[in-house]
Structures are given as structure tokens and as C-alpha cells.
Specification:
- By secondary structure, the chain is mainly beta.
- It has one domain.
- The chain has a five-stranded antiparallel beta sheet with strand order 4-3-7-6-5. Strands 1-2 form a two-stranded antiparallel ribbon.
- The longest helix has 5 residues.
């Protein structure tokens, strides 16, 4: 479940205090992108992640997000 996914073992995407940004810097709401979807997260470098959105076993999209410290 989305609420159980942790980033670097400390932050949850369901935490209202976390801010997600697309790679171009525009802010996004986690519930808008991830609502109803499970996802895997790949760490690129500090604060930059690739999220693979899945609906069951089907990949339905991906987003690169920057988490502002």
C-alpha cells in the first residue's frame, strides 16, 4: 500500500509534510499521481527517485520526482 512505502526508511509518501516535485520543478500532490496505485521506487541520487506506477501487475506509468530537503 502506498502509505506503507518509506523513502530512505524515514519518510512516507502519505505524510502531508513531504513535498514531491516533478523533475522540471513543478509541485505535484502524491494523492494525484499515486492514488489507487502501487509503485516501486528506485533511488537515483540524493532526493531524486523514479517511481514505477502499477495497477496490479500492469505498469501504468512512471514519474521522476525530486524530494526537496
Amino acid at each position: 500500500e502506498v502509505g506503507e512505502v518509506r523513502i530512505e526508511g524515514t519518510q512516507s509518501l502519505s505524510d502531508p509534510n513531504i513535498q514531491l516535485y516533478l523533475i522540471d520543478g513543478s509541485p505535484v500532490q502524491p494523492t494525484t499521481i499515486f492514488h489507487g496505485k502501487a509503485f516501486n521506487c528506485t533511488y537515483f541520487q540524493k532526493g531524486i527517485y523514479l517511481f514505477i506506477l502499477r495497477d496490479g501487475e500492469q505498469i501504468v506509468g512512471s514519474e521522476i520526482v525530486v524530494i526537496k530537503e
